[in-house]
Amino acid sequence: MMNKRRLAALALLLSVIMAVAPSSAIFVGQAQVQATTAEELVGLADRAEQQVKNLIDLVYANDTALQVIDDAGLLGELEGNVTLYNQGLKNLTKAHDALKIGDYKAAVEYATEALRIFREVFRSIHVILDKAGIQKGQLTDNQGLLEAVTRTLERVAYLRQILPENATDALQLLDQAEAYLNVDEARTFLLEGKTSEVISNLDKAKELIAQAYQYLKQLGEDSNAWRIYNYCERTQERIRERFRYGSDNGINFTNALASQGYQSENEFMQALQNMVQAVQGKAGNIQDAMQDLEAISQMVQQMDQALTQEINRYQNQYGMGGSGGSGSDMGGNKP
Fold first, then answer.
1. CA–CA dist 72, 93 (Å, integer)
2. 328: which DSSP letter?
3. What averages of pLDDT result for each successive group of 10 residues across the chain (335 residues)?
4. How far apart are alpha carbons 265 and 270 in whole angstroms?
5. What is the DSSP string of 238-303?
6. CA 61 – CA 270 distance, rounded (Å)
């Protein structure tokens, strides 16, 4: 859930998006629209849609809030915004469809319109909440809890990758932690107003994770250094394989690299190597090392997804079979 600062930041983001929308419209009028421009706009629209959806879900899940809105004569206005949100969702779907077939001009058009709609709905719903006298934080803070559950669940996954297979006690602790981190259950609790249950489960999961960390500390610095080294080597090799696949098949990854902020494969691999060298010196502080490993894994996963999109685009254009392997398991093997 978002606090007021996060809400303000999102509103600012949506404002910035719409401020640059006219420049996107210029691209639409041109014969060629860059793939990265379309992908970035669709990605922004995805994030905006999710935030607006979360807000709508939380409002409708709160019977008291709905009654207050109805008493204020604003329920029809709220329902109209939901209808408008659905129109934005249709535009977003069309943007994704256009992106898949390489029609970047249409993707930009649909994504820009979706962003405009989501921005309007987001602002309008908050005006409704203000008019009805509803405290926004009371509804939207739930999103922060869901994000905390998700982040903690990801931490369990990374820690599981570092633990040795014979660490049965520690792995059982992680199994128990995962049971407390059921995202669907947490969402249900929040929609029912059972915030304390979610907080309690999150605290219990964190305590179990802390116990698993203690096991790694007991293994000793040398053992952890070896495991970190092997994990990093495997992670680097998997992304090298993706680049090799592209090179062997004549696929240009320039746009994919640019979407992640890199000008070349060498620049990305050097940045990755720098992070690997930094984490290898932290075997004595396993919690710090795990934070760095999470950052490395996320960096590689994001790049892998960008490369996969470029590969799929190439295959759709030239009818080429095979994708050189799915990127869904990047960083997923045990060290």
1. 34
2. G
3. 44 46 42 62 86 82 79 92 93 90 87 92 90 67 76 84 83 94 84 83 93 79 77 88 90 88 92 88 76 84 85 74 42 42
4. 9
5. HHHHHHHHHHHTT---HHHHHHTT-SSHHHHHHHHHHHHHHHHTTTTSHHHHHHHHHHHHHHHHHH
6. 48
